[in-house]
Aspartyl/glutamyl-tRNA(Asn/Gln) amidotransferase subunit B
Amino acid sequence: MEWEVVIGLETHTQLKTKSKIFSGSSIAFGAEPNTQASAVDIALPGVLPVLNKEAVKCAIKFGLAVNAEIAPRSVFNRKNYFYPDLPKGYQISQFELPVVGKGSLTIQVGDTEKTIRITRAHLEEDAGKSLHGDFEGMTGIDLNRAGTPLLEIVTEPDMRSAAEAVAYAKKLHELVQWIDICDGNMQEGSFRCDVNVSVRKKGSDKLGTRREIKNLNSFKFMQQAIEYETRWQIETLEDGGTIQQATVLFNPDTGETRSMRSKEEANDYRYFPDPDLLPLDITEADKAAAELELPELPEAMKARFESEYQLSSYDAATLTASKSVADYFIAVVAAGVEAKPAANWIMGTLAAKINAEDTTIEDSPITAELLASLLQRIADGSISNNSAKLVFERLWASPDVRIKGVNAHGGLDWSLIVTDVIDAEGLVQVTDSGAIEAIIDEVLAANAAMVEEFKAGKEKAFNALVGQAMKASKGKANPGQVNEILKKKLTA
């Protein structure tokens, strides 16, 4: 029997505000427990919440970025449940009238493009944190996180594989950072995903019973959790069992999910409008103000890269998958480098080095200006592409070389930095036609058999002769000139 997996995501995105959603407490990460919990956060009698305007602006920005409906009026509700790290006994959230309505996000999985429907995105406060491993035989409660502003982004059950779910989560993760509403730090809990997984017989329109995998803060773990949960559900059904709706946790050490509790329904929370908060009214002026703060969005930038720089769809998509990479590319091109070589180096040599060093483009010792200066030396024939890769490695390994590039005015002259390394390594390319011709004459005289093979129609002999000429020049001869002069001499 063939089965189909059905997946929907609920993503808790911590908004990039200075204070909490209903109080003036700081949301800075890493403070001593319970030092950032005000009277409002710990629900002392008589306190009243005051809505953070910046959190609302973040929600509007997100709605605009995914072409969603922005509700002119939305309502805050009390979501009632008991848990030790929820001091009020309820969470302030939104239910029937969320601030952001239906929208969409398009993902790419292999060669397939797919649109994932976003059902809603609502504002809410985070709960505190239970510390189970810090006290022997006891659980500690840290309320620093209580009241932290969240935007919960909910999709339709549109994904049909772990790969699609991860692609969506990655695209959303990059988008919220791109529009600067979230720092995206998954290790600190700024971006957490709950994944609803169910299976059904292929071809069926009826949804299966779902289980919700809670608090996944790693794309790798998300992939593993979905794949395990899918296998478990299929095996359970094929063995004659039934799936019970439940909330489950993923254990990275075992690679397995385990049931935590039965899954609550909306009516279990006894939602009702919060009497302490007025309805949230959003005007056209509010939306216009938020839109002014939005940067050029990834899809628009991708289209611009294709039209303005004549890049392929693949290159443009790769460069705009991250705002930091896109900004880096723009800076390299702005320094006077052709778009295609810039794209090739950023997606190739630079990306490989960043991955190997497990760092980011923001922390790369090769700045956009430094890479641009290196690529300009390739373009003007000073060094070959292969020599440039050696220079790149030297610059990466010795960022202090930049000190030698200080110009007379005390600023950095990137071309001086690159020149210093080229000179130190003896990599200046030979472009003198006479010198190259002399090298080729020696190579032809020493390789008469290869010359005869070429004249007999064996093209590989030509490449071998080029290799001999480059070897004789110790890699310094301009490859284009070597090819041109060699061909003239062989066909004369």
